[in-house]
């Protein structure tokens, strides 16, 4: 096994070795590279799968008692200064390697089908491999300097992926917003790293923590300076993990392709901030003030994200705010010293949220041929409904993720969230109230999304139910929205040709259907791709392909069983819990409050499940399936979204708690006004004084040139004029 540890550095090298040739090939040989697009995709999936296999091997070595392995290469050597690069393999590293590679592999398999229409398909896989390599490099980093290098590479790759469809103004603005917001946190992180190096003389995790604790004990360092450096260091995770007040970039980042939302904003990039806090937890733990701030930021973020998810119409934005809320749970758990539970929730949430995002991508993929390539329509839950009948596998897997995130046993997030609720209640009644109330809100908004999307009737067809024409929206990837109007006669003709007079598909019908589907894939938006089947005049979605369903099924299995790693169960005569065997139990002050066996786990879980059920029932009461067609309700009088009954809460959620508005007024407009005033000061003062002196010198010079022309008559005229002026002054003075 020494061989495995010695070459563990090769894990991030596998996706990197795919990213470089794809990127260089796209730049120097674009035609040849595009012609081999599927080959490059298969190579990328294969290499990341190999990295996943090695990660599982390292993981098995660690959980069976393998040693912690550190390896360093000298980079810069000096008498008073040295820098080293290397890698670190310990239980935390092995878990994160498995997490990143498994979710990354599933996302790549999914992307092969989801992005098949895109002309920049090859470039997408180059960016995706680059991101995976950066994230894996961050995970195995043994010191703060190397973490910062890969931290910035993760930021660059996320910028490229969020703005992948950069010709859409919203996507271009979103990637810039994410980049600038993260720069605020990253600058603080850099200052914190330099401050701790100045204090301890090292970037290495273990030595840094031990040296700092020693200096604090003997009073050898200024407490204010150390606390300030820790605050700065913590600002990096605050931005990267979308914690209040630097959370504003995460919802807008949904402008990127949906596979990116699953990879970056569920399992990896946003988890990097939590990972860094866990890695440096002995350092943070030595400063109670920072721990208290961490818990409050986590609690506020959890509650804020849950309230803003309540009335979102966009499916992906609702999941984005849910991610923000769950990351707040993790940060709160770290702040109250529940190190192991925060990591546990990081694992369970990653698989559950990746499943939900990929499920939403499957829904969007099936809606686009009907409503057009327009996020305002294809992601709008108000236009969905009843999709479970047409997309059963997507509906079932999405329901699994919904149940998990809502905290319903035996799904993954139930086990971790239940322990966070218990620990927060033991730590403080305030934090207990925040986490329990947020748990109820989570169950409400998750089932709201599920019911609006998958239950009831398909609502897009109700819009034109009583019209004489069917309007089929068609939006090109980058162009303006267009609409195709089909008359009833034309619809009848198409429906008859496809289904046949006896409602059975004929050979000609399949040919027509295939041609229509081929046309739709080229134009991305022609509704008649997915024909009207047996439903009369209307278009209906269909289930996604097998390449997209396979990752959903695999992640659904993970969502069912991954929570068992943190569940106590009997092994012989002792209670055995897998996570407790990996990490030092003294890191968690609430271990004595945790259940000691499976029976206690289920009995103590009753209150946390009880808080979820009211949220589910309220969601069902407000958004229960209403079969409009069977009731004969006129579409102009129906109200699909009933959030208008609580306008204050709806406006709070819809306007993102008004935080973006405040940022726009205070920061964006304030900086713009400051820039305008600075520009005016620069023009009229900084440049104005030299320009004024120059103009004055010009006039004086011109005047002297005229006076010194050598003409006696001019001299006499000036002489007499001066005498006249002097005489007048003398006369009127006396």
Automatic annotation (TrEMBL):
UniProt EC number: 7.1.1.-
Main location (coarse class): plastid
Domain annotation NADH-Ubiquinone oxidoreductase (complex I) chain 5 N-terminal: ranges: 75-125
GO CC annotation, single: chloroplast thylakoid membrane
Gene3D superfamilies, alphabetized: 1.20.5.2700
Keyword Membrane: yes
Transmembrane segments: 6-29, 41-65, 85-109, 121-141, 147-166, 187-209, 260-281, 293-311, 327-348, 395-415, 427-447, 549-570, 605-623, 712-732
NADH:ubiquinone/plastoquinone oxidoreductase chloroplast chain 5 C-terminal domain: residues covered: 448-682
Location of the NADH:quinone oxidoreductase/Mrp antiporter transmembrane domain: 141-441
Localization, UniProt: Plastid, Chloroplast thylakoid membrane
Function according to Swiss-Prot or TrEMBL: NDH shuttles electrons from NAD(P)H:plastoquinone, via FMN and iron-sulfur (Fe-S) centers, to quinones in the photosynthetic chain and possibly in a chloroplast respiratory chain. The immediate electron acceptor for the enzyme in this species is believed to be plastoquinone. Couples the redox reaction to proton translocation, and thus conserves the redox energy in a proton gradient.
Family: Belongs to the complex I subunit 5 family.
Name the UniProt record assigns to this protein: NAD(P)H-quinone oxidoreductase subunit 5, chloroplastic
Native organism taxonomy: Eukaryota, Viridiplantae, Streptophyta, Embryophyta, Tracheophyta
Gene this protein is translated from: ndhF
């Amino acid at each position: 096994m020494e061989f495995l540890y010695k070459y563990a550095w090769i894990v991030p090298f596998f996706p990197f070795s795919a990213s470089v040739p794809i990127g260089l090939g796209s730049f120097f040989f674009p035609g040849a590279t595009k012609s081999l697009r599927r080959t490059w995709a298969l190579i990328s999936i294969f290499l990341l799968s190999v990295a996943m296999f090695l990660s599982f091997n390292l993981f098995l070595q660690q959980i069976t008692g393998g040693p912690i392995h550190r390896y360093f290469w000298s980079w810069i050597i000096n008498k008073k200064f040295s820098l080293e690069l290397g890698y670190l393999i310990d239980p935390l590293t092995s878990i994160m390697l498995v997490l990143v590679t498994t979710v990354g592999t599933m996302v790549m398999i999914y992307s092969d089908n989801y992005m098949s229409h895109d002309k920049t398909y090859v470039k997408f896989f180059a960016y995706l491999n680059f991101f995976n390599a950066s994230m894996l490099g961050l995970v195995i980093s043994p010191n703060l300097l190397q973490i910062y290098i890969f931290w910035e590479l993760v930021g660059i790759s996320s910028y490229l992926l969020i703005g992948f469809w950069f010709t859409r103004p919203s996507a271009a603005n979103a990637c810039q917003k994410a980049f600038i917001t993260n720069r605020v946190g990253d600058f603080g992180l850099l200052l914190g790293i330099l401050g701790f190096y100045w204090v301890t003389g090292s970037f290495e995790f273990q030595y840094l923590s031990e040296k700092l604790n020693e200096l604090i004990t003997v009073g050898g360092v200024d407490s204010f300076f150390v606390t300030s450096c820790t605050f700065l260091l913590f600002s990096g995770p605050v931005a990267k993990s979308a914690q209040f007040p630097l959370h504003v970039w995460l919802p807008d980042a949904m402008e990127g392709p949906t596979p990116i939302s699953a990879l970056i904003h569920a399992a990896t990039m946003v988890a990097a901030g939590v990972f860094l806090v866990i890695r440096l937890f002995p350092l943070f733990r030595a400063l109670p003030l920072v721990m208290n701030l961490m818990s409050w930021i986590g609690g506020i973020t959890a509650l804020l994200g849950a309230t803003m998810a309540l009335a979102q119409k966009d499916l992906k934005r609702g999941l984005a705010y849910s991610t923000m809320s769950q990351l707040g749970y993790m940060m709160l758990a770290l702040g109250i010293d529940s190190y192991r539970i925060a990591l546990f929730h990081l694992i369970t949430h990653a698989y559950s949220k990746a499943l939900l995002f990929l499920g939403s991508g499957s829904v969007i993929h099936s809606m686009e041929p009907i409503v057009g390539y327009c996020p305002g329509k294809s992601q709008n839950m108000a236009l969905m409904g009843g999709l479970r009948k047409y997309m059963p596998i997507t509906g079932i897997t999405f329901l699994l993720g919904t149940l998990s995130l809502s905290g319903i046993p035996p799904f993954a997030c139930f086990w971790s969230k239940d322990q966070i609720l218990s620990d927060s209640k033991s730590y403080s009644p305030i934090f207990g109230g925040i986490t329990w109330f947020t748990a109820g809100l989570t169950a409400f908004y998750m089932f709201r999304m599920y019911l609006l999307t998958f239950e009831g009737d398909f609502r897009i067809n109700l819009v034109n139910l009583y019209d004489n024409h069917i309007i089929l929206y068609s939006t090109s990837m980058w162009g303006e929205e267009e609409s195709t109007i089909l008359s009833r006669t034309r619809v009848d003709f198409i429906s008859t040709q496809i289904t046949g007079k006896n409602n059975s598909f004929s050979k000609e019908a399949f040919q027509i259907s295939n041609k229509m589907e081929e046309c739709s894939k080229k134009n991305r938006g022609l509704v008649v791709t997915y024909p009207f089947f047996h439903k009369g005049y209307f278009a209906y979605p269909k289930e996604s392909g097998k390449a997209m369903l396979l990752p959903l099924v695999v992640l659904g299995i993970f969502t069912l069983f991954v929570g068992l790693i943190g569940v106590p169960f009997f092994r012989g005569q002792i209670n055995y819990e897998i996570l407790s065997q990996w990490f030092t139990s003294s890191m968690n002050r609430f271990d004595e409050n945790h259940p000691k066996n499976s029976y206690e786990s289920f009995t103590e879980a009753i209150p946390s499940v009880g808080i979820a059920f009211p949220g589910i029932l309220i969601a069902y009461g407000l958004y229960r399936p209403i079969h409009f067609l069977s009731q004969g309700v006129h579409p102009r009088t129906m109200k699909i979204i009933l959030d208008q009954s609580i306008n204050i809460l709806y406006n709070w959620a819809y306007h993102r708690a008004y935080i973006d508005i405040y940022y726009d007024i205070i920061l964006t407009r304030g900086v713009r006004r400051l820039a305008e005033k600075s520009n005016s000061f620069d023009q009229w003062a900084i440049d104005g004084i030299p320009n004024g002196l120059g103009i004055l010198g010009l006039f004086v010079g011109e005047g002297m040139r005229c006076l010194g022309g050598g003409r006696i008559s001019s001299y006499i005229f000036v002489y007499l004029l001066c005498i006249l002026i002097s005489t007048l002054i003398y006369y009127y003075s006396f």
